[in-house]
Write a structure and sequence with these properties.
five-stranded parallel sheet; 2 domains; single chain; Aconitase, domain 3; globular; 19 strands
């Protein structure tokens, strides 16, 4: 088993005891909740006449069902209004901080935690959402949990878990122009498979990872779950500390920051740490990646052909055939030129300020293709405000994008933002499962924000590296 890794150190620091069933009971440093997976857990507490053990370590927001257009109450969708009302009641009764839409802090749970400084190195972080792995970018152990586990954490601030193996994934070299964190993680999932990480947590390392900003690291850790891993993390470094130094949690207490930094530095993986597996990928060989199928692992470089299912491992062939039939792609073709109907910039994977800047830089001077419906959905109200302060909203709206409020939006289609019929979407989100974006006949092509922007203006999947620049007179 692994030894001397960040995973081992943080696990041991938070271990309360070993349970009779062989699992370890871990103390939870931060519990993030939202409106979809928490109501049942609170109901279970009431049935047992229990209270929330540590409301001070619990933080709530609304993201999955909140509209990105009209957020006036009551919400237009009865089910959404019911979930919103129940969350409000639960957090008020338990004295839990709640970033509701009137605070200016509302947003996707995996965006607000990092931007407020709630997510910190050496923490254990849980949330009733699979993409909780995002917070591992800060050197935290972050896990998605189910409803009964949410109940347990609310009641005890602990969780029972089995320890996993650790695989280090080293991405070496320098990334090329317009090659982003999204392309890196899609490459990793493509090479290791959507089930390649089962039984593991992933430690991301190497020059290409270390050169990324925190937003890029979050994008990579976010999609660890798509590769089958229980979690993913990056060791904290000066990039991490600079992000946290001015965060809400430390803005008025620099001494506390310096004290914690000593701990943060201590939990990084040792130079001689032992891993259960090590994988190395040459980052300089990665190009913009898009998906051709209906899983995040069915990806291909923009200049590479869609594979022939017959050339894939036997257990992958039938899935590939069904995926290609659904997506209407043919083996041997490239995805470049694949026509789209919708361009979606958003999600907990790619809706931070740097993502919007990147996309705006591609869009500026261009116009959205007349046959494309294009949406920009910032990851939080703070991201939205910061983007507007920079004039990014003007760039997008001038080009023909819809500029929306914060929320999960079309990533999972739980509100009005959905694909219609068999529309094809260029999406910066994390999943391309059939029906994921709201229509069972809809087709989703995952890609980076820059690639979504390029597709929006051309009306088809386009290599952003070849998009003509606009000369402004």
């Amino acid at each position: 088993m692994s030894r001397g890794t960040l995973y081992d150190k943080v696990w041991e620091h938070h271990k309360v005891t070993e349970l009779p069933n062989g699992q370890d009971q871990l103390f939870v440093g931060l519990h993030l909740i939202h409106e979809v997976t928490s109501p049942q857990a609170f109901g279970m507490l009431r049935e047992r006449e229990l209270e929330v053990a540590r409301p001070d370590l619990t933080h709530a927001t609304v993201d999955h069902i909140v509209p990105t257009t009209d957020q006036s109450r009551p919400l237009g969708d009865d089910a959404a209004e019911e979930m919103m009302s129940e969350l409000e009641e639960n957090v008020n009764q338990s004295d839990i901080t709640f970033d509701h839409p009137k605070t200016g802090d509302q947003g996707i749970v995996h965006v607000i935690g990092p931007e407020q400084g709630l997510s910190q190195p050496g923490m254990t972080i849980v949330c009733g959402d699979s993409h909780t792995s995002t917070h591992g970018a800060f050197g935290a152990l972050a896990f998605g949990i189910g409803t009964s586990q949410i109940r347990d954490v609310l009641a005890t601030q602990t969780i029972a878990m089995n320890k996993k193996k650790v695989r280090q994934i080293r991405v070496t070299g320098q990334l090329g122009e317009h090659v982003t964190a999204k392309d890196v993680i899609l490459t990793i999932i493509r090479e290791l498979g959507t089930d390649g990480g089962v039984g593991y947590v992933y430690e991301y390392a190497g020059e290409a990872i270390e050169s990324l900003g925190m937003q890029g690291r979050m994008s990579i850790c976010n999609m660890s779950i798509e590769g089958g891993a229980r979690a993913g993390y990056v060791n904290p470094d000066e990039t991490t500390y600079e992000w946290l130094r001015d965060a809400d949690e430390f803005a008025d207490d620099p001494e506390r920051f310096e004290e914690l930094k000593e701990y943060w530095e201590s939990i990084s993986s040792d130079a001689d740490a032992e891993y259960d597996d090590v994988v190395e990928i040459d980052g300089s060989e990665i190009e913009p990646v898009v998906t051709w199928g209906t899983t995040p692992g069915q990806g291909v470089g923009i200049t590479e052909p869609v594979p022939d299912p017959a050339t894939l491992p036997a257990d992958k062939q039938e899935t590939a055939r069904r995926s290609q039939e659904h997506m209407r792609v043919e083996p041997g073709d490239t995805m470049e030129g694949y026509e789209i109907d919708v361009a979606f910039l958003g999600s907990c994977t790619n809706a931070r300020l740097s993502d919007l800047r990147e996309a705006a830089g591609v869009v500026e001077g261009h116009e959205v293709h007349p046959d494309v419906r294009a949406l920009v959905v910032p990851g939080s109200q703070r991201v939205k405000a910061a983007a507007e302060a920079e004039g990014l909203d003007d760039v997008f709206t001038a080009a023909g994008f819809e500029w929306r409020g914060a929320g999960c939006s079309m990533c999972l289609g739980m509100n009005d933002d959905q694909l219609e019929g068999d529309e094809a979407s260029a999406s910066s989100s994390n999943r391309n499962f059939v029906g994921r974006q709201g229509s069972k006949d809809g087709r989703t092509v995952l890609m980076s924000p820059a690639m979504v922007a390029a597709a929006a203006v051309t009306g088809e999947v386009t290599d952003v590296r070849t998009l003509p620049e606009v000369t402004v007179a």
